[in-house]
Amino acid sequence: MAVAMLAFNGYAAMAQSQVRLTSCDATSLLEKTIGKWQVNQSAWQSEKKDLATWAGRATYNSSGKGNNVHELCEIEMADGYTKTFDGYLRFVENQNQFEYVVADPATGKEEKLFVGEWFPEFNTLLLFSVRPKNTKLFKKYIPEQWRYVFFDNGTFSKMVHQPDENGKLILTHKYNYTAPVLADSK
Hints:
- A ten-stranded antiparallel barrel has the order 1-2-3-4-5-6-7-8-9-10.
- The protein is 11% helix and 49% strand.
- The chain has three helices and ten strands.
- The protein is mostly beta strands.
- A hairpin with a 5-residue loop joins strand 9 and strand 10.
């Protein structure tokens, strides 16, 4: 799985010409995420040399603030702990870029974590982590990548690529979003 995912290199894609999206185009893209989803998170366990998978659920809602989608995801880990992701995926038209931000619950102040763009030839929204202020002392900063890949069947995946100790990006987590399975009524 990791080898196949690494074949699509984000840096090579960034070298291609950027697609200029309209607000309407961006809204159509973000609407593909809206709904209630079953989520399967997979992660490579290097110490066990095995792929671990956990189940969860996610809700993506239009936040009512323009091209903004609220993402709330809960993954139930094997030890009973629930890992929660809570943020906003949005399109900023005047910058022609997508952003992923989190809001401080107490102050409402937003922090931009990722920025990126749409690559229609790959049905992929590619986001790069924003360089944290405290890493300016480091000469070499390799951003983490998130790739939202949209499939023809209406599902999508979010793949997280992080740099290893040698600076190579490796697939560390993959989230597969499928429509929730409804209980059969008899």
